[in-house]
Design a protein that fits this description.
Largest sheet: 7 strands, mixed
CATH class of the largest domain: Alpha Beta
CATH topology of the largest domain: Rossmann fold
Number of helices: 14
Strand order of the largest sheet: 5-2-1-6-7-11-10
Distance between the termini: 51 Å
Helix content: 40-55%
Structural class: alpha/beta
Length: 322
């Protein structure tokens, strides 16, 4: 048997507690239907006997308190809700418990922005991690020692797992089902829950918003120039001159402030504009390419797929039904 402890933190997302419980319970049923013994013992574990969520609209009653929980093989940290610093503070007593379980051999998986609570344990320092694409910048700011993966659905390193945004956590659950059972069971589970087992990137869902929570006014000025002039060719030297900073110093400061190189930032702004265009009109690929300042078709297609996860044609067909 594998003991799965699903934490019930304060300020957590109800669905991210119920989803894993439903998933592993369903796998137990599938195993029994095929003449096998159930594999998972599932416990909801919390600091208190009753935890109210969604402004008191729901109450969750954990099966076990922290000190009562069975020794877990897998600890699941659900997504949090609201201000991440406040949520971490509200769940500070869970932090040493999570760290101790990992120290004693448990694997640990965070779902979506549950990564913030996982990172608070220090277990992610120097390791890769996924989280919701909309929280990448905040995560960088709070946990600079963690190698957060922009766009990844699943990361796995040394028995620590994390997932991308929102319902992407189902892809991590399928990954864990396959790890603990087999590929056939993971495929059956994916079909039952209608989850695309092959998806490994959340890039297609991401909307790029440049990191501006910094104090470098010269970099902010450059960011605004890029965002207001994405349709023209912009060089690094030109930007450095506009903000009267030496080129090498400008590139270093830009990377430190935004977590993107200048070239990456320019590309992401242009591709974000292209995505919006594909979503709202029926311009052809070349028209959109020229609108956002590209003249090389191959470079545009390559950059678009790298950032958006789809080719321009695939993206337009998926998000524009006009």
């Amino acid at each position: 048997m594998k003991n799965v402890a699903i934490l019930v933190p304060e300020s957590s997302v109800m669905q991210a507690i119920a989803g894993p419980q439903y998933c592993f319970s369903a796998v137990n049923q599938f195993l029994q239907m095929s003449g096998n013994q159930p594999l998972f013992t599932i416990e909801l574990v919390g600091e208190k006997k009753e935890i109210k969520l969604n402004e008191g609209k729901y109450s969750v009653h954990p099966d076990k308190l922290l000190h009562e929980a069975s020794k877990p093989d897998l600890v699941i940290i659900p997504a949090l809700f609201g201000d991440m610093k406040d949520a971490i503070q509200a769940n500070r007593k869970l932090v040493p418990w999570i760290a101790e379980q990992y120290k004693q051999g448990s694997e640990v998986a965070s779902l979506c922005v549950g990564a913030f609570l996982l990172a608070s344990t220090g277990l992610l320092n120097g390791k890769k991690c996924s989280t919701h694409w909309g929280f990448i910048n905040a995560f960088h700011e709070m946990f600079p020692e963690v190698d957060v993966q922009d766009g990844s659905i699943i990361t796995e390193e040394n028995g620590i797992y994390s997932s991308g945004g929102a319902n992407s956590y189902w892809n991590l659950l399928l990954h864990l089902v396959e790890k603990y059972t087999n590929r056939e069971m993971a495929i059956l589970t994916s079909k039952y829950f209608a989850i695309d087992i092959g998806r490994d990137s959340q890039s297609v869902f991401a909307m790029f918003k440049g990191q501006k929570q910094h104090q470098d006014e010269a970099v902010k000025q450059a960011q605004e120039y890029i965002e207001n002039n994405f349709e023209v060719k912009i060089t690094i030297g030109e930007l450095a001159d506009k903000v009267t900073v030496g080129r090498r110093s400008f590139e270093r400061r830009f990377k430190e402030a935004t977590n993107n190189s200048v070239l990456e930032y320019i590309q992401r702004v242009k591709i974000e504009a292209a995505k919006r265009s594909f979503e709202t009109n029926r311009k052809n690929i070349n028209e959109v390419m020229f609108d956002v300042g590209y003249t090389d078709t191959k470079a545009f297609r390559t950059t678009f797929k790298k950032i958006a996860g789809f080719t321009p044609v695939e993206y337009r067909n998926k998000y524009n039904k006009k």
